[in-house]
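Entry type: protein chain
Record version: 2
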Amino acid sequence: MFMSVSCIRTGGKDEETGTSRTESERKKDKKKSKENKKKKDSSKEPVDDRVVSEIPHILLEENYESSFEPDPSFKYLYSINNVHLKLRENSKEFEALIKAFDKYNEEMDEAFENDLRELVIKPHPADEGEYAEEEYAYETPGVDTRTHIVRADKSIVSVINYKYADYGGGSPEYHRYSSNFDTTTGKKLEFSDVVKDEEKFFELADDRAEEYYQYNDFVTPSEYVRENGNDFAWTANAEGVSIYFDIYNEDGGLENPQIVTVYFDEAKDIFESKYTKTEDDYVIPLLGDMKLSLDIDGDGEREIVYTDKVLAEGRRFMTVCIRIEDLCWR
């Protein structure tokens, strides 16, 4: 919270005019100064605790462009999309968030134009010698962005983008990037705005990664941060903060990232309290290979929840189910 104050210089004028003060007066002034400093420190808030009066409703607006050669080849040259964030509400209390979304959309459009230029200048796979006589033997170059709203309430709007990019002539790329906004102020939040004790957070994240990905030889979250800094995607859902790390092997990037969630009730003191307050009813999206530990039956114990591919009963194809411990719900 910012306040408009006026200040005057005190304490130095006595020496300049030669006025002397008694020892008791100096002690009183010193005590008063300490009390004022203590009051100032205690009133300092790391975030603006105000919240809006209603839940924001986020609208996703997709922009799409594709190009193909006319008959007779009808060859697709490329396809590309991006997604804008819009707000259904337009009241004054949401002005800051609307402006933040406008800036976000401008950044998405800049990225769109950069990707489009990359697609246009690359030679099309169908023009390469090995594909010249074959039809549909290649993937159409393109950039596909899928935007997921992880949380949108009176405190925070948290968004994760899954981006697939195939510019032609190599392995496709998979990237994740996130944006998190304070619903009231529209401020684009840094990780440190929500997580006050990053060291403790990554200790818990390393333990969770070992629990979820014990058979995979990936770097731990803390190792990733030491090597790459804070250049990682993160979101806040209704029960905790998730971090996303792209995974690479000898063939390039993998389609789904490693996702680790540290829950608010594990260590309440490491999170900014404003962003741990949620609505009574909420939804948590389960993305790709993501695993969550949730108290499904209300017994106070968390069960691991994730999606799993299983063979459909009596059929020859795989289907996706939601697995909770040993149960699989289709």
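Comment: The longest helix spans residues 95-121.
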